[in-house]
Amino acid sequence: MKRLKISKKGMKQGFKIFISLTVIWGVYALVQLNRQVTVKEIAFDNILSIINKLDGYTVYLKEKGGYEPYLVLSKNYNGYGNVLLLRKYLLDEERIFNEAEGYGAYYEDSKIDSYLNTEFKQTLSPMVQKQLVTSQLEITALSSVGSVGKETTTIPRQVFLLSHRELWQAKAAAAPKEGRILLYSLAPSSPVATTKEGEARPYWLRTPYTEHDTTIWFISDIGSEGYIPLWDMITKDVAVRSVRPAFCIKKDTKLERKEGIVPGKAVFVLKEDAKSNGGKR
C-alpha cells in the first residue's frame, strides 16, 4: 500500500488555512461574547449557537440562599415557544410525592405539585418569579393510573417535575408519553443529579408507574430509571426522594454576565437581576 506524500508547499498551505480559520473563529466568538444574549441562545438544543459552546448552557437564578445554577435545556419546550430550565442541583430536603392512598400516583394537585407551585416558587427572587410563564404540562390522565393506560391530559403549571419520557428516552409499557424527548437526555450521564456537595441522589419524575395507582417513576443515584410505591416497605413510611424543579421562561429574556458568583468567572444571570445586589452561592 502506497504511503500518502504531502509536499512542504501543501503543508504550508494547510497550516495557513488552519490559522485563518482559527482567527475567524476567534473574532466571531469575541463578537458573540460581547453582544446582547437571550436565554434561548444558550439552550442545550440550540445546536447552531456558539454561545452555548463557549459558556455552557447554564444561567444563574437568584433564590433566597443566593444564586443557583439552572440548566437551559430547550429553546422550545414541547412546541410552546418557551425556554425550559432545570435546576442543576437537587433541593436539600427530600420530600414525599404524595400521600400513600388510592390514586396517589396522579400528579395534578399531588403534594409535590402543590409544594413546587407554592413553597418552592416563593424561594425564587421576585424578579425570577416575574419571568415565569405558565406551561401546558402534559401528564398522565387519571383514567390511565393503575390501568396501564396511555391517555394523557394537560394542566397549567409554572413549576413542575420532568417526565419519564423527557428525561429517560427509552420506552416503558407502564410510562405514558408525557411531553417530548429532550435532546439533553441523550447526553452521557445526563440523568444523574447531585446536591451542591456532590452527593448523587435519586429524585422524582412526574410520571406514574401505571400498573399500580400508588407507584411513581424516579431516576436513581446512578442515573438509571426506577419505580417505587408511595409506601416504602423498607422504611415503613411514605417514600421520599429528592426534588429537581423545572420551569419555563420567555425565550427572549435577556441575559448578562455577572462576576462574584463563581470565583474567577463571569456567569450568565437575568439582565434585570444583574442590576440588583446578588449574594454569592
> What's the tally of helices?
6
Q: Give the SSE string.
A: HEHEEEEHHEEEEHEEEEEEEEEH
**Unreliable stretches, pLDDT < 50, 5 or more residues?**
none
Largest sheet: 6 strands, antiparallel
Q: How many beta-strand runs?
A: 18
Measured as a percent range, the helix fraction is: 10-25%
Would you give an account of this structure?
The chain has 281 residues and is an alpha+beta fold. It has a domain at 71-250. The chain is 21% helix and 30% strand. It is built from 6 helices and 18 strands. Strands 2, 3, 4, 6, 9 and 16 form a 6-stranded antiparallel sheet that branches. It has a 3-stranded antiparallel sheet with strand order 1-17-18. Strands 10-11-12 form a 3-stranded antiparallel sheet, with no helix packed on it. A hairpin with a 7-residue loop joins strand 3 and strand 4 (82-87). The model has no long low-confidence stretch (mean pLDDT 89).
Fold blueprint:
Blueprint (H helix, E strand, L loop, with lengths): L7 H26 L3 E2 L12 H5 L2 E6 L2 E9 L7 E6 L7 E2 L14 H13 L2 H6 E2 L1 E6 L11 E6 L1 E2 L3 H4 L35 E6 L6 E5 L5 E5 L1 E2 L4 E2 L1 E2 L4 E5 L3 E9 L2 E6 H4 L7
Antiparallel strand pairs: 1-17, 2-3, 3-4, 4-16, 5-15, 6-16, 7-8, 9-16, 10-11, 11-12, 13-14, 17-18
